[in-house]
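Human: We require from you a standard protein entry with sequence in single-letter code and fold as C-alpha cells, and nothing else.

Assistant:
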Amino acid sequence: MPSGTMTADPSIPREDPDLLADELDLLGQYLDYHRATLAMKCARLSETDLKRRAVPTSSLTLLGLVRHLTEVEYGWFCEWLDGQPERAVYFSDDDPDGDFDNLDSHPVADVWAAYWAQVAESRRILSTFSDGGELAGGLPGRSGRPRNVRWILAHMVEEYARHNGHADLLREAIDGETGE
C-alpha cells in the first residue's frame, strides 16, 4: 500500500457496552470498544504516519502498538485460554522489542490483516467460555499461578486502555487530531 493511503478502517464500529450485559459479555464488549478505539486512532493515516515516532521522548509508534497488541491478543487468548503453542511474529528472544522497533519487517496492510485475524480468533476462543470464573486452560503463568477468564479479560481491557492513551498522544502529535 503506497504511503498516503488509508491503512486502518475508520468504519470499525465503536459501540458503548450494554449497561445490562452479563459479566463475560460486558468485559468482551469493553475489550471490543478499546479495539475499535485503537483502529479509530490509526484511521486515515499514511504508512509513514503510522510508523512515525511522534513523541520525542518515546520510541512508540501507532504501528508498533498494533503489532504489540496483536502479540498480546495471541498470548492471552490463544496460549493462555486455548492452550495453543507459544509463538511470536514480531519479536524474539534476541529482539524482545521487535514488535515496537522493526516496523519495516512486515507490510502495514499485512500487520492490519494479522491484527484483525487475531481479534477474530480471540473472540472465537472467548465464545467457548460461559463463566468468568473458569480457569484458563493454557499456560500456568510466569508466577506459576493459574488465572481465570475474568482476570484475563480485565487485564486485556487494562492493556488496551493504557496503549490507547499512548495512541492519543501519538495521534495528536502526528496531525493534531484529538478525540475520545
